[in-house]
UniProtKB/TrEMBL annotation:
SUPFAM superfamilies: YjbR-like (SSF142906)
One Pfam family, short name: YjbR
This protein's name: MmcQ-like protein
Highest taxon in the source lineage: Bacteria
InterPro entries assigned to the protein according to its UniProt record, in alphabetical order: YjbR, YjbR-like_sf, YjbR/MT2646/Rv2570-like
Lineage: Bacteria, Pseudomonadati, Bacteroidota, Bacteroidia, Marinilabiliales
Gene3D superfamilies: 3.90.1150.30
Length: 121
């Protein structure tokens, strides 16, 4: 998966925005202002995604390209090196899981707002 495919997939999800809140090289994707994915736009392509703590450890043990989340809470975040060693389908599943992790932690008000987004789309 390349940066264009990653960006397109993230933006295809409901209520997602993108921006550069930290610096000019770290692209951040948010669902209703809550971060679910970060990626670099220069150098070796990597993404940070949120994950359940037990699953985060399992993925790190199963895949050499999955590392503890760089500059993130390593209990909940993984960094995935997008070097072609993992299928696009698997990457999309991890993105979906990260998105869902963030949505499930939102307040009921925010979750209702997301439901309204889905009805509009």
């Amino acid at each position: 998966m390349n940066i264009e495919e990653l960006r397109e997939y993230c933006l295809s999800k409901i209520a997602v925005s993108e921006g550069f809140p930290f610096d000019e090289e770290t692209l951040v994707f948010k669902v209703l202002d809550k971060m679910f994915l970060l990626t670099n736009i220069t150098g070796e392509l990597r993404m940070n995604v949120k994950c359940e703590p037990e699953k985060a450890i399992e993925l790190r043990e199963a895949y050499s390209s999955v590392l503890p989340g760089y500059h993130m809470n390593k209990k909940y975040w993984n960094t995935v090196v997008l070097d072609g060693s993992v299928s696009n389908q698997q990457i999309e599943e991890w993105i979906d899981d990260s998105y869902d992790q963030v949505v499930n932690k939102m307040t009921k008000t925010k979750q209702n707002e997301l439901r309204n987004w889905k009805q509009i789309k």
